[in-house]
Structures are given as C-alpha cells and as structure tokens.
Design goal:
Layout lengths: L2 H12 L14 H22 L12 H32 L18 H6 L6 E5 L5 E6 L4 H9 L11
Antiparallel strand pairs: 1-2
Length: about 160
C-alpha cells in the first residue's frame, strides 16, 4: 500500500468524527458536550456587549477605572438578559407563542430585549403648562398593540405611556 493510500484510509476512518478537547477532567463526555453546545449563547451575549451596549475600547489611566467600567458593562448586560428572560417566561405563562416585534410585524418566538425596546422607540409625551407652571394637559403618542402587550406581560404600569 502506498503512503498516500494509507493517508487516505486514515482520513476516511476519521471522517465524521468531531474531536473535542477539554481540560475538564472530572466532567463526563455528556457534560463536556453540553458545555460546548452552550458556547453560542455566550458568544451572543458577547456580541450584544459590542453592538447593543456599544462597548468599545477606551483609554483609562488607572486599572481601577477600567475594572469599574467593565463591572458596569457586565451589570448592564445582566439586566438586559434578565429582562429578556422575564419576557420569555411571561409569554409562555400567558400562552403567547410569539410577539410581532420584527419589522413588518413579523413574529418572533424568542424576542430579545433590544427588539422589545424598539417597540417603544419614538414614543413621546408632551405636557402643556399654564403661566403659573401648572400642568394643564398631557399628550402621548399612541402605543402600538405589541408594546401594550409587552407592558402587560412585564407587569409595567402603562399609565405613563398614556394607556388607560
């Protein structure tokens, strides 16, 4: 048998195998695979740090300030993830299998916090005061049905948005 035939035979035996290397010696193969499969979720959160939260390189003179800034970014990302989780849990409890949060009112089965926040984008409140600085009247932009649903699911008072 020629060398290239031996190499081809070796490659054929390995075809379809996926090597996964780890330093987790006490984990079972199933646990290692589950942790590996969770990686895209972590990468999605990292992407949200850079896109949604707009974390970018900064130049700080003191390491303590860099640590503080990183902590604040982490807390913001944690809040972001908790809002998303709460919305999805409440959707399931209320029997909503989707919310129309995508452009053109397309359905989203797993809405993100960013998508939910966009449903409130552009909402304004106008307040009219008299000469004695007393509130005379308040006008609100109309809240979309999907934004009303989000408010209801998250048990947020809709009165400040002009919903009665």
């Amino acid at each position: 048998m020629l060398d290239h035939e031996k190499g081809l035979e070796k490659v054929e035996r390995m075809d379809g195998l996926f090597p996964l290397i780890t330093n987790r010696k006490n984990d079972s193969l199933e646990e290692v695979l589950c942790k590996y499969k969770y990686q895209p979720f972590l990468e999605k959160r990292h992407e949200q740090l850079k896109s949604v939260l707009a974390v970018a390189p900064v130049f700080l003179k003191r390491p303590e300030r860099a640590s503080a800034l990183l902590l604040l970014n982490f807390v913001a990302l944690l809040i972001y993830a908790l809002i998303e989780r709460e919305l999805r849990v409440k959707m399931k409890e209320a029997g909503h299998n989707h919310l129309r949060l995508y452009p053109e009112c397309r359905a989203s089965k797993r809405p993100t916090t960013d998508m939910m926040m966009e449903s409130f984008l552009g909402l304004r409140r106008h307040r009219v005061f008299d000469d004695a600085n007393r509130l005379v009247h308040t006008y609100h932009d109309s809240v979309s049905p999907v934004a009303r649903t989000v408010l209801a699911l998250l048990s947020i008072d809709s009165a400040p948005y002009g919903c009665h």
